[in-house]
Amino acid sequence: DDSNSQRYLRWADAFIVVYSITDRPSFEIARQYLQKVSEHLRISNKDCPIALVGNKSDLERYRQISKADGQTLSCEYDGIFYECSAAEEYEYVEDIFYGLVHSIQRQRGERSLTYSPLFITEDKYHSMQRNRPRSPRSSTEKKEDKAQNKKNPTSFKLFNKSFKIFN
Fold this sequence. Notes:
Layout: H1 5-11, E1 15-20, H2 24-44, E2 50-55, H3 67-76, E3 80-83, H4 90-108, E4 119-122, H5 124-131, H6 139-151, E5 155-158, E6 161-166
Parallel strand pairs: 1-2, 2-3
Antiparallel strand pairs: 4-6, 5-6
């Protein structure tokens, strides 16, 4: 949504621009975004890492943008270049985010943070509860459920499934 991109550009500490290696128009749109981000950084005299990510590397047989084209575009804007498959290689996607966080820390002269792993499991109670027939609930019961969910910061919902996070 380009309606008010300045509000996003102002608070960002890093930028990730993603295109599909199987779609030439997405690469051209990525070029436009890189140009917009670069212009903003120049005007605001800000220095933020920029990552250009070619997604869908698992679809090599449908490739329309070469790796060299991605690297060249990334270099034009002083960016970091990655290729990955978000569908099959989620670890690489995670590495991209960690790499940008470390770049931000280096630029700011901050000491590296250590990350402790999170273990996420599906919350069976909520899943079982979801599959049971629902009886009509009053608005007070709905508010109580929402309040209870807000109190428990170690769980979240994703794709209508509840998960718990353990440190």
